[in-house]
From TrEMBL:
GO terms for biological process: dTDP biosynthetic process; dTTP biosynthetic process; dUDP biosynthetic process. It comes from Nitrosospira lacus. Phosphorylation of dTMP to form dTDP in both de novo and salvage pathways of dTTP synthesis. Belongs to the thymidylate kinase family. It comes from the Bacteria. The gene is tmk. Its EC number is 2.7.4.9. NCBIfam families: DTMP_kinase. The keyword Transmembrane does not apply. Keywords: ATP-binding, Kinase, Nucleotide biosynthesis, Nucleotide-binding, Transferase. This is Thymidylate kinase.
């Protein structure tokens, strides 16, 4: 059996991950892959319950509590969804994974990256996505897009300065892991982003 692949999509809120995830799913299915689409925080009943607590727009919590809950949800997600699917030979596409913790809790909230390194090591050891698509968008552009669709959750209510730190942390991760993380200019119109994505998928020949 061909081993499955694990693809993650990342970006600040409003970058276009969810939109392109649907396209990517269709594209890979048309190439005969069995695709499991999932998300973080979430992806399991317990993870979805944690997601509600984490995104609740009235909730307040310590930044370390936030990081621990993200990794707790991830531990469950790996155990119940991601690892079993990959073992079956399925492909898994996740709307966010651990890079989001480094970007939001590390960059945005200012938690020490070493603490996040320890949690990462504890929860997933050396396991990493095969490919991460990072949709890079200017903070103002992302903000305009999310404002147009729904009331903001607890993260989306953060100021632009927070999102600049999140974006910088994502770019640092992309610089640190250039073979795994591909940066896509998501400021472009939808069709152009889709074309870039199409080229990346074909050129890296993940099928
Ligand atoms: N490149 C783009 N140009 C214009 N609008 C976009 C683009 N990408 C996404 N959008 C729109 O922005 C909104 C947020 O996109 P979404 O995919 O939900 O973002 P994310 O999942 O990254 O938060 C949606 O209404 C979507 O149609
Ligand atoms: C996975 C993960 C997400 N998050 C945040 C980023 C997002 O603002 C939020 C999840 O929302 P998101 O996936 O963007 O969902 P939606 O498109 O429905 O708003 O959780 C973290 O802060 N750390 C993490 O480790």
């Amino acid at each position: 059996m061909t081993p499955g692949k694990f693809i993650t999509l990342e970006g600040i809120d409003g970058a276009g991950k969810s939109t392109h995830l649907r396209w990517l799913e269709k594209e890979l299915r048309s190439r005969g892959k069995t695709i499991i689409v999932t998300r973080e925080p979430g992806g399991t009943p317990l993870g979805e319950a944690l997601r509600e607590l984490l995104l609740d727009d009235n909730g307040t919590m310590h930044a370390e509590t936030e990081a621990l809950l993200m990794f707790a949800a991830r531990r469950e997600h790996l155990d119940k969804v991601i690892l079993p699917a990959l073992a079956r030979g399925d492909w898994v596409i996740s709307d966010r994974f651990t890079d989001a913790s480094f970007a939001y809790q590390g960059g945005g909230r200012g938690l020490a990256m070493q603490k996040l390194d320890s949690l990462e090591q504890w929860v997933q050891g050396e396991f990493q996505p095969d490919l991460t698509l990072y949709f890079d968008v200017m903070v103002e552009v992302g903000r305009q897009r999310i404002n147009a669709i729904k009331p903001p959750d607890r993260f989306e209510k953060e100021q632009d300065a927070f999102f600049r730190q999140v974006r910088d942390a994502y770019l640092e991760r992309a610089h640190k892991f250039p073979r795994r993380i591909v940066v896509i200019d998501a400021n472009q119109p939808l069709e152009e982003v889709k074309e870039s994505l199409d080229k990346i998928i074909s050129s890296i020949c993940i099928c």
